[in-house]
Design a protein that fits this description.
By secondary structure, the chain is of the alpha/beta class. It contains five helices and twelve strands. It has a domain of 125 residues: 3-Layer(aba) Sandwich (Glutaredoxin), CATH 3.40.30. The strands form four sheets. The protein has a six-stranded mixed sheet with strand order 2-12-11-7-8-9, covered by helices on one side. A two-stranded parallel sheet has the order 1-10. Strands 3-6 form a two-stranded antiparallel ribbon. Strand 7, helix 3 and strand 8 form a beta-alpha-beta unit. The longest helix is centred in the N-terminal third of the chain and has 18 residues. The termini are far apart.
Length: 195
């Protein structure tokens, strides 16, 4: 079985052939940018983008679905997880089998209470300030709305933000202010009515 020898033949053109008349995409983009630069529109667009970015940092998007506490409630969250697949090392040795259940609170404890609140509501800000004094530095303030930068300047303490509501969603928090603390091997969440 010998492979067939490959050969190419010029069969000529079948029908009319036309040169490409569309401008090169990069040239088109470059020309549009130069036009916008000459007209001053590019500078205006850059300033608008910079302003949006700064406003996004100063005033992050509030966490959706969170409201001010109307009825106080206490509930618990169990952080125990079950592995859905085997965990192996770089050599393929089994470290943890699928189905293994583990509670992170058996290994590490919650070092501070977490306080979720909305800085757009002055009642919640006042309540948060009172709780910060009460817990004497063992409280981590986390915003779901409002400007964390303004509070950090006023309080001279770090203030955090629940970006995209990752923590509130995981913990099941629907109302703020809410204090999160550890109770044994589970997390206790107290949604408080602002005074």
């Amino acid at each position: 079985m010998l492979p067939a020898a490959a050969c190419a033949l010029d069969l000529g053109a079948i029908g009319p052939v036309y040169p490409i008349h569309e401008p090169h995409l990069l040239d088109l983009i470059r020309n549009r940018l130069q036009e916008k630069e000459r007209s001053g529109e590019l500078k205006k667009l850059e300033e608008q983008a910079r302003e949006r970015a700064v406003n996004g940092v100063r005033q992050p998007t509030p966490v959706a679905g969170i409201k001010t506490t109307e009825t106080a409630r206490t509930f618990y969250y169990d952080p125990t997880f079950t592995l859905d697949r085997n965990v192996v090392d770089d050599r393929g040795n089994l470290l943890f089998a699928a189905g293994t259940r583990k509670n992170p609170l058996e290994i590490v404890s919650l070092s501070k209470h977490l306080l979720f609140f909305d800085a757009r509501d002055q009642r919640q800000v006042t309540r948060a300030r009172e709780l910060l004094r009460f817990y004497e530095g063992r409280l981590k303030p986390i915003l779901v709305g409002g400007s964390y930068l303004d509070l950090m300047k006023a309080w001279r303490t770090p203030v955090y933000y629940d970006q995209q509501g990752v923590l509130t969603r995981r913990l099941g928090i629907k109302q703020v202010p809410a204090i999160v603390s550890q109770e044994g091997r589970r997390i206790r969440i107290d949604e408080l009515v602002p005074q």
